[in-house]
Amino acid sequence: MYLNMKKPLIATLAAVGIAGAILSTGAAQGARAVVIPAVKTDLPPAPGIQTAVLAGGCFWTMEAVFEHVKGVKTVTTGYAGGTKATATYDQVSAETTRHAEAIRIAYDPRVISYGTLLRVYFSIAHDPTTLNRQGPDSGTSYRSAIFPQSPAQAQVARAYIAQLGAAHVFSGPIVTKLETGAFYPAEAYHQNFYDRNPTHPYVVTWDKPKVAAFRAAFPTISN
């Protein structure tokens, strides 16, 4: 049974005033950065804005973390891995469309490299060892997946997963997969959710601790 607790359960808990008490333990456990090495093989700096597409649980959380990375110009929440016809929140939440909740990152590679984005992704943005689950959310739409936008990105991502696996920095095996598929932006109310909803129970419980942990672990690239 897929829990998909992001909207219905959080709303219910908030209504009775116990969201923080119920979820704080899990949030605290999920907000510690894992110390991992930098990538050995990275893309060289290049002129112009580049794009990365990553999936790792709730796109609100992923967006919140990467919006605070220096060199990131914009972060768009959306759906990757399925078709345009079914790229809506209600359909994706039904876990029948093959989409993953994902973010599209527009970044300046002269400021932040693709490999460094992956380091943030694996270290703090999500847990790459949990299959189809992040925090309170469960289902294939919350899977850990990288959608390379070029063969070069695929090479870097594949090599980094192998590097981290060989280093045994995680308590379990990395389940992150490299996938293909177009990215479709999510509905307007999902965009910039962290900034527009600072008191939302999900943001307070799950996203703010992640952002704080990112800033603590990566002070030189946080803004």
TrEMBL record:
Domain Peptide methionine sulphoxide reductase MsrA stretches: 51-202
Entry-linked InterPro entries: Met_Sox_Rdtase_MsrA_dom, Met_Sox_Rdtase_MsrA_sf
Keyword list, A-Z: Oxidoreductase, Signal
Catalytic activity: L-methionyl-[protein] + [thioredoxin]-disulfide + H2O = L-methionyl-(S)-S-oxide-[protein] + [thioredoxin]-dithiol; [thioredoxin]-disulfide + L-methionine + H2O = L-methionine (S)-S-oxide + [thioredoxin]-dithiol
Transmembrane segment boundaries: none
Segments forming a coiled coil: none
Signal sequence segment: 1-30
Signal is among the record's keywords: yes
Enzyme class, spelled out: oxidoreductase
Pfam families assigned: PMSR (PF01625)
A GO term, aspect molecular function: L-methionine:thioredoxin-disulfide S-oxidoreductase activity
Record-annotated active site: C58
Domain of life per record: Bacteria
E.C. designation(s): 1.8.4.11
Role according to the record: Has an important function as a repair enzyme for proteins that have been inactivated by oxidation. Catalyzes the reversible oxidation-reduction of methionine sulfoxide in proteins to methionine.
Membership in a protein family: Belongs to the MsrA Met sulfoxide reductase family.
Protein name: Peptide methionine sulfoxide reductase MsrA
Organism: Sphingomonas aurantiaca
Gene name of the record: msrA
